[in-house]
Amino acid sequence: MLEIEKGVRRVTFPLPFGIDHVHCYLLRASDGGWTLVDTGLGTRDPEARWRPVLDELDGPIERIVVTHMHPDHVGGAADVSAVTGAAVLQGRADYAQCVGAWGRRDPERWNAYWRGNGMPESSVESLSEESARLVAAVHWFEGPELLEAGDDVDGWHVELLPGHADGHIVLVRDGVMIAGDVILGRITPTIGVYPNSRPDPLGDYFETLTRIEGLGLRVAYAGHHEPVLDPAGRAREIRAHHVERLRRTVDALDDEPATPYAVSLDLFGTELTPTLRRFATAEALAHLERLVREGRVARVDGGFVKA
Known about the structure:
40% helix, Metallo-beta-lactamase, Chain A
């Protein structure tokens, strides 16, 4: 556990993904206890995972805030609540998607979605097997206290900043953002279109980046890698990155309809694990959908062409 500034501590857990870790944050509560933000993946032995963390604290974890429903952020929510007795708080929109993704799983529909976006059957099968293994580590919490934009969590202001996840929330106070994955320093947050997601997440994310620029932040404590010490500047860098990727997406198209999977090979290369290929295909689709709305790309016969 690391104290990164007065009243803010960080604990880091390993991940079996392309990103090999996730940061969770502990915020000093007004009554001397702690608020935990994000929870890592679930585990078979929550007591063994969380007892060392609790033993380093000088007060109880009183509440758990989930920034978004991705496995490495919501996955341990039920675990920590069971060990601590703390209430779980989650954004209203995000919880609805959490229920859809983890509580009402439909593997056949999921597989059909990737086939429909051009993924070959061998890749779909590998992805399906990997997803089935992952779901066992997602111990989401049923019936959390639901948060809205503008709510207050023990002096921290709730902002709704969609894009990386449709219902992604962050906590902001005195120029500090507990950011989840809404902004990252070393890499860019993935922006993808998935079943049941909003249709234009990249458009949403451009609006989020504008919001971040206007929040007057001095630091964003992110879910991965180092703190972002110039959030407004980093938001501008990420915007430029996606503008360039939009250009490259157009360049990947011609007069023959191309699937998002085929475009992902052009944008991200051919050598990816099944999970990373899923991210790549979903991100290619997000850029294609944005270009359709901008009138630069058209849908034709199940694929996309230059407009």
